[in-house]
Every structure is written in C-alpha cells, then in structure tokens.
Amino acid sequence: MSIWNDILGLFPILNLSSIILIAIVLKTILKKSELAIFYISIFGLIVSLMSGVLLFEERRSAFSDMILVGGYANYFIILIALIGILFLLQTYQFIKSFTNYSEYLILSLSAILGMMVMSASIDLVTIFIGLELMSISFYILAGFNRTDVRSNESSLKYFLLGAFATGFFLYGIALVYGATGSTNLLMISQIQSEAVKVPIYIIGFVLLLIGFGFKVAAVPFHMWVPDVYEGAPTLSTSIMATGGKIAAFSSFMLAFSIPLSMHLKSLTIVVAILAASSMIVGNIFGLAQKSLKRMLAYSSIAHAGYMLVGMASGTQTGREGIAFYLMSYALTNLGAFGVIIFLENKKENLTYENIAGLGKTQPFAASMLAIFMISLIGIPPFAGFIGKYYLFLSAIEQNMTWLAIIGVVTSVVSLYYYLRVVVYIYFKESEIDFTIEKSKTTFTSLLVSAALILFFGIVPSLILRYTHILM
After folding, report:
1. Per-residue confidence (pLDDT) for residue 468, from 0 to 100
2. What is the pLDDT of residue 108?
3. What integer pLDDT is reported at residue 460 of this predicted model?
4. Backbone phi and psi for residue 61, each to the nearest 5 degrees, phi listed first
5. Domain spans of the chain?
6. Strand bridging mode 67-69 / 60-62
7. Any idea which of 76-80, 348-352, 404-408 has the lowest mean pLDDT?
8. DSSP per residue over 435-451, as a string?
9. Residue bearing the bigger pLDDT, 246 or 467
10. Which end of the chain is more exposed for a tag (fewer CB within 10 A), N or C?
C-alpha cells in the first residue's frame, strides 16, 4: 500500500512524464503533430497544477525519503506548472513558423519536468537528476536556432560553464556523502551540528554552494548569463530566466536552510557577500546596457542577490520572502520577455531605441511592459514590493542591516534602467513601425501575468499564508 501512496504523492511529476512520452509518440505517428502536442502539453500542465493543489496538505516524504510530497514541494510544483502554462501560451504564435515546433515543446516539457523534480527532491542525488534533466534541455533550447551564430555561441557557453558547475556540484555531493554517510538532506540535517566540525563536510558544502551559485546566477558565477540570455531565442530565455530560477532556488533553499538557520557565522558571511555582490554588480552593469535582453539578464543577477539576502538571514521570514519573491519575479519576468517576444524581429535583439514611441503604436504591449518594469523595481501595488519588503526585513531581524541598506540603495539604482524603458515607450518618438501579428494566446499570457502580480501585490496574504507553513 505504501508504494501506491508514494506514486499518488508523486502524481504531478509522473503525469508530466507521461505527457512527454505521449508527445514523443504523437510526433512519430502524426505528420502534423504540432497542434496535438500543444494541446496535450497544456492539458498535462493543468492536470499537474491541479493535482499539486489537491495534494498540498499531504506534507510527507515518499520513496524512502527521496521526494517530498505536499507543502514545500507542491508550492513550487504549482508555481512551475503555472509558469509552464503561460510560457506555452507564448509559444503558440510560432506554431507555423517553427519548423521543429514539436521538438521545442517536448524539450520545454522536459526542462519543466526537471524543475519539478528539483523542487520536490529531498536528496542530493535526486536534486542532481532533476538539475541535469533541466540543464541538458536548456543547453539545446539555447541553441535551437541552429542557423544563428549567436544562438550557437550561447548554447556552447552555457554547456561548457554548466559542465564545470556540474563537476563542482557532484564533487560536493561526494564529499558530503564521505563526511556524513548519506546524501539525504533529512538525515544530514539530524547530524548537522556535528558534521560542521568536519573539514571535508565544509569543503563539500562550499562546492555545493558554487554549483547552486551558478544555477541561480549569483556573482561571481554569473558571467554566462548576459551572453546566454541575449544569444538564445527569446522564448528559451523566457523559461530559463523564470522556471530555471524557481527550481534552482527551491533546491538551494532546502539544502542550505538548516545550516544557515544554525547561524554559522562563516557560512552566513559567505552567502551575504554573494548577495551584496550580486545586487551591486547586477544593477550597476544593468545601467550600461542597450539591449533589453541583456538588461534583463543583469536584472536577473541583481534579483538573485535580493533573494540571497533572505538566504543569508537564515530565518523563517527570509524563506517566506524568497518563496513569495520567486512567484512575483517569475510572473514579472515571464511577462517582460513575453512582450519582447511579441515585438522583436527574428533577426535582432530589441534595444531601447527600438521601443521608442511604443505607447502610441502598440498601447497594449507598452502598458504591459510598463507594468512589468514597475513590478521589477518593487513599487506598490505590485507583488515585487511585498517580496523585497520581506527579504530586507529578514536581514534587519538578524542584525544584517548593512545588507538591507545595500539592497535598498541598489534598488534605487535600478530605477534608472527600468524607468528608462517607460520613458522610451511613452516619451520618445517612434523609429520603427511595429506590425504585430495578433496572438490571442500571447495576449492571454501577458494579461494573466500582469493581473496576478497586481492581485498578489494588493492581497499578498493569499500567498503568504502558504509560504508561512512551507518549512
């Protein structure tokens, strides 16, 4: 009976795995499988989302404590499924122009499956399996435009640097196992106070920190981000910057929450330095960017820094802040990249000059982009404000006021390049006459993203009541 309970608890992940297999079969037996695979992908993600909601109150582990069921795991599974649905809606307008659209959907679903596995894993080995499934899919998606040199370059850079990060991560797992005799985070947490006295354990955790630091794009492991985000197809960048960040932080938080909660001074200082460096570097370099995708890449680095503030605090408030902020950040960034997808020419990246006068020529796209930029700044009434408030509050609670001050100051710096977008779209003359092919699915994705960040910014308690009981 226990095995059936485990399978039931893992239903959101198993369901998506089945959908991927069905999609592969449909691709082989149907000449024109694109539409069928699109609809079955949307259906599969909706089922995973709904089953994640229904199983939220389970709160247990499964498969010999390898996987978490309910609570923490399901919060992120639900969020990843929602992001996946909105992402697929953005892809629909390319169903005719993408010669390999079916393969693109299958790879995207594989990446989303890897994210879900990472979010639900309570063992370093299963985290690694999910990480590699997501990463390998991302390497291919980044280079999906095979005739574009920049896409090939971004894929190669991501693959090479990702391989190095994987090496650090695996070696870290080996050293942690050597020191504790286990890769299970539940078992490791029980002997944490003794394990931190063993040098090999500390070295292993430092290597894990490097691996996670690469995946969340924290300084100094961030150098791949601008080139990969800019060179990859914007659709690929969209899912990498949102779902990939959720999965990486959910595992990162789970692996490091207990050591940081013990307020080990050396580890806290290291994470705090990563947070401060990411906020400073991301926002200062963001000022100099002309390409919107590169600007959002450096913005991604800065936002990783904000979330690391919550990690460094090692408090319940910090973890709540990260969980809420991941929801806000993912919806906002997915929307921002969605507008860029909506506007951009296939052969060029949008610059600030390209979107001048957008408010007159494309008022819907302009209003959506303005909303997403304001939410990224962290201005009420959007959800970005609540997330930053909790993250900075967690630092102050742990007498790390200096870190909160850096966060506030760098947020002020970010005003320049976020509001610069708003200035260009509403107060500059148009250089390009955008002719946009109307897409109801893209409209829907953008409207849902904007509505949710506004709604949860006004009524954050609907999310915070669940983040409060996650860990």
Report:
1. 63
2. 92
3. 85
4. -110, 160
5. 263-471
6. antiparallel
7. 348-352
8. -----HHHHHHHHHHHH
9. 246
10. N
